[in-house]
Design a protein that fits this description.
- It is a single chain.
- The protein is α+β, with helices and mostly antiparallel strands and 460 residues long.
- It is built from eleven helices and twelve strands.
- It has a five-stranded antiparallel β-sheet with strand order 2-1-5-4-3. A five-stranded mixed β-sheet has the order 7-9-10-12-11, with helices on one face. A two-stranded antiparallel sheet has the order 6-8.
- α5 runs antiparallel to α6, α6 runs parallel beside α10 and α7 packs parallel to α8.
- The protein binds adenosine-5'-diphosphate.
Length: 460
């Protein structure tokens, strides 16, 4: 509003100076006319100052030059008035100060009307012959300026009102949806996580609402997975706990009398508690892997890790009559990772391959590809049914019950593999091999180390 008011004032001033310029142009035109007549005297042979003064101070002539808004007065070079237009009445315009040939000044007439005056000295052959004062009344200029200013002030007031109304409207249109959004968000809270805003707006508020809906989707998914995990875990814990409980009761009841029952029940308790411990261990690893960035990562060489896991598992494979081999990459890939977790990832895959393979071989290979390190574990075992391939990595998922009953496990091994791969920025996938058996492939972002890097000797 202040800017609009200042603008209106400035436009008013500019308008006034424009009108004054116009007035000056009118006065200058009259003064040029006077000059022409003063010089015309030359052609007629009037050389002396007195004749020139007579010709210029002629009342008729002066009235012709003057108009209703313009006065003309002729002075001698010394400043003595010798003629003026009849519309001037008693008005007398001031003399031109010595040493100045021409100037514009402001004055007032007898009615107090502002005047713009041109005082100009005319010379012939270097001698001053006459001084003319041409005055233009500025009442029209003032009136027009006032009118323009009034119009501008009204326009400014209307503009201010329009600006205020528009600002209120814009502010409301911005604030209203935010208020509604906040209300909806408060209402949804943690209790009504299934509610969505579903606002169909193409603006920023619409994007905010869509982002909020997407965030709720993720939150709801995370809560659902958490609930599922707790329910699965409780369910999985129940079986070994029931077995432990039942066998403990058997020992209490028959243990003293029947050493066979006691030995069998104790074996069952030891097995089931070991299974429980394994499950708890698996869940702790999952929790660690899920904690993401908090895992300390260091440069690791994959070849020695894989070779070590394979060496440890070789006896187990041999007991099942399997050949276990490692095929390492010549200049092994390097990754940034947590050594115990990566070791566990390889171990889980190798363990599964041995568990689910009756005869043949298990091959663990390490490959270096541009920007990627790849570990694959292939076996000649039971293979993977296409319908379960997706679910293998779910927590507590165990495949074909006919196998899983006979083969020990918790259903957490592959979920742990996936979590560890993810936390290292990698992926894992399972596929059936065309000639039977399966292959599990883990890809991890490779750490590019130039040959000769001192880190290489350190991590080998
Ligand atoms: P667990 O081995 O304890 O059952 P996992 O999460 O390690 O749990 O594996 C989940 C399921 O995936 C297994 O029950 C099995 O059905 C299937 N699976 C895992 N590894 C293999 C494999 N190498 N060959 C065939 N099936 C496998």
């Amino acid at each position: 509003m202040v800017i609009i008011a200042i603008g209106a004032f400035a436009i008013g001033l500019a308008f006034r100076s424009l009108l004054i310029e116009q007035a000056k142009a009118g006065i200058t035109a009259t003064s040029d006319e006077i000059a022409r007549v003063a010089e015309a005297g030359n052609a007629l042979g009037f050389y002396d100052q007195a004749t020139a003064l007579d010709a210029l101070a002629n009342k008729e002539q002066l009235d012709q030059w003057a108009s209703t808004t313009q006065y003309v007065q002729i002075d001698t070079p010394e400043g003595y008035p010798i003629g003026k237009s009849s519309n001037m009445g008693d008005l007398r315009l001031g003399a031109l100060p010595p040493g100045i040939d021409q100037r514009f000044t402001f004055a007032r007439d007898t009615d107090g009307v502002a005047l713009l005056v041109l005082d100009r000295k005319y010379s012939r052959d270097g001698k001053p012959i006459v001084v003319a004062h041409i005055a233009q009344r500025l009442d029209i200029v003032d009136r027009e300026t006032r009118r323009a200013q009034t119009i501008l002030i009204y326009a400014a007031i209307i503009a201010c009102i329009a600006v205020v109304i528009a600002s209120l409207f814009i502010a409301r249109s911005l604030v209203d949806p935010i208020v509604r959004l906040t209300g909806a968000m408060e209402e949804i809270g943690s209790e009504k996580l299934d509610r969505r805003l579903r606002w169909k707006r193409g603006d920023e508020i619409g994007r905010l609402a869509a982002t909020f809906d997407a965030m709720l989707d993720r939150l709801q998914g995370a809560f659902a997975r958490e609930r599922q995990f707790i329910s699965d875990a409780s369910h999985e814990f129940k079986t070994p706990l029931t077995v432990i409980n039942a066998n403990a009761q058997l020992i209490r009841r028959w243990g003293d009398r029947d050493p066979e029952v006691r030995a069998e029940s104790l074996d069952a308790i030891v097995d089931e508690s070991a299974r429980l411990a394994e499950m708890v261990g698996g869940m702790l690893t999952l929790a660690k892997a899920d904690s993401g960035d908090q895992i300390p990562k260091e440069p690791l060489a994959l070849n020695p890790l894989v070779a070590d896991v394979v060496a440890h598992a070789r006896d187990r494979a041999a007991q099942s009559g399997l050949e276990l081999r490692a095929e390492l990459a010549p200049d092994g890939p390097y990754i940034l990772g947590d050594s115990p977790l990566i070791r566990q990832l390889i171990n889980n895959l190798v363990d599964n391959a041995i568990k689910f393979t009756e005869e043949g071989e298990v091959v663990v290979s390490v490959r270096q590809e541009p920007g990627t390190a790849r570990i694959s574990v292939s076996d000649t075992g039971i293979g993977i049914a296409p319908e379960t391939a997706e679910r293998l990595f779910d927590r507590f998922f165990r495949g074909d019950p006919s196998h899983s009953r006979a083969i020990e496990g918790t259903g957490l091994g592959l979920a742990i593999v996936r979590s560890i791969a993810r936390v290292h920025g990698g992926t894992v996938s399972a596929a059936a091999r065309p000639d039977g058996g399966s292959v599990f492939t883990v890809t991890l972002p490779a750490l590019e180390l130039p040959p000769g890097d001192p880190l290489l000797t350190e991590i080998q």
